Amino acid sequence: MRDLVRRIDAATPADRDRAVDALRALAILGVVLGHWLVTALVADSGTLHGASPLRAMPALAPLSWVFQTLAVFFVVGGLVGARSHASARARGESHGQWLRGRLTRLLRPVVVVLVVWAVAVAAMLALGADQDTVLALCRLVWSPLWFVAVFALLTAVTPLVTRLHPLWPFAVVLITDVHRFGSDAPGAYAWGNVVAGWLVPYCLGAAWSRGELRGRGTGWALLLGGAAAAVALVRWAGYPPTMVGVPGEEISNLDPPTLAAVCFGLAQCGAALLLLAPLRRVLRRPAVWAAVAVTNLSAMTIFLWHQTAMIAVTVTGLLLDAPLPGLHTPPDTPGWVFARLAWLPAFALALLICRAAFRGYETGRSRTGSTVVREGRSARPRRDDSCRIPGP
Fold first, then answer.
1. What are the pLDDT digits (tens) for 324-339?
2. How far apart are CA 254 and CA 194, in angstroms?
3. Nearest to 309 by CA among 271, 285, 269, 343
């Protein structure tokens, strides 16, 4: 392990901003932990159906403010995408060549999870599994894929985004919400907020790449201004207090993104900027950096398979013929929360197994374009690709 840590540290270019990788890792892990804590599969008369403790215990709403970290992933995506596109142009690559490389790493693991679950669904139905149970499981696994679709679309239009001010998509979200909630109009057109809402932090990331988000003052302005606006919208404008979807609730801040969710995302972007300096100091430690680098190697695999890991543990627990607290019981008491915390290590172990089985589809066994790989060949044996870290 010490040798792996040393080689990862040696293979990292001196000019690589490790804090950006740490922000990406924190964003993915925040989503994973959030889903594990606010999503339940309740066993009832031989079937499994989804539920959320946020519905029965509204006091847990602040939990969703801690673990809903998607805006951080999008602001980092805008930063890295803009820098990567500029580097590709400097090397003489076309937009198509650059985009193909970006989307291959993004979409290849998606195809794998869809194929595996298509086979699993066919097997479950052939064995006589309850259709409602199968549908509930599929929703858990496939519902997060909207994120991949939106991120792929924003990646494709990165050259346009680099010239777009974040206020424009913010204005689209504002006007949409005013029309949607103020005039009680049909909300179908509000799905445009799925793109506009996440385009706001993506544009901020592109502005960051141009050096426009300088100084801690910008971070504090985004953090305090975004948080104040989000709290005001929840307190006085009737927006839901949770920043994630809750089964059975009429309005969701994420489905599609509302103005409250976008303002909350601005606060997260400000917090990310303020965290850069502390993260850079912490990441000077090779062991800490190695953990961040390994997480980034499998970021999409972790995101795509974390719900499968939870499902695997839940279904395995059914073999005991007795509902297990925090795993199969309704999430309607504080006791459920403490029991669910005890199950997190089991979920993590199942996720590590999934990562070991499927991470190769994300990293690509023959991929040699990584900055760390190019710069770190002399720092590690050629036969070992374990410290290969995604390029910018």
1. 999 999 999 999 999 9
2. 8
3. 343
- The HSE-up count of residue 364 (CA atoms within 13 Å, CB side) is 17
Q: Which two tokens stand for residue 29?
A: 């892990």
Short-list 139, 135, 140, CA closest to 125: 135
Answer whether residue 386 is part of any domain. no
Q: How far is CA 81 from the centre of its chain?
A: 16
Locate 95 and state its tokens: 């937009």
Distances from the Cα of 234 to the Cαs of 186, 242, 253, 261, in angstroms? 21, 9, 10, 10
Whether 298 maps to a domain, the answer reads yes
Q: What mean pLDDT comes out for the span 188-200?
A: 89
Instruction: Kindly state whether residue 151 falls inside one of the protein's structural domains.
Output: yes
Find residue 49's DSSP bridge partners: 42
* Under 8 Å between Cβ of 381 and 19: no
The per-residue pLDDT for range 70-116, each reduced to its tens digit, is 999 999 999 999 999 999 999 999 999 999 999 998 899 999 999 99
Check residue 373 and give its pLDDT.
Answer: 37
Structural domain including 189 reads 2-45+60-379
Domain count, the chain: 1
> Which residues, other chains included, contact 312 with Cβ-Cβ below 8 Å and sequence gap of 6+?
350
**Which amino acid belongs to residue 326?**
G
Does the reported pTM lie above 0.85?
A: yes
Q: Is residue 51 part of a domain?
A: no
- DSSP 8-class letter at 51: E
- pLDDT 10s digits, 213-259: 888 999 999 999 999 999 999 999 989 999 988 877 888 899 889 99
Read off the amino acid at residue 230.
A
Tokens of 9: 């540290």
Burial of residue 100, with CB atoms counted within 10 A of its CB: 0-12 exposed, 13-18 middle, 19 or more buried: exposed
Sign of CA dihedral 280, 228, 334, 130: negative
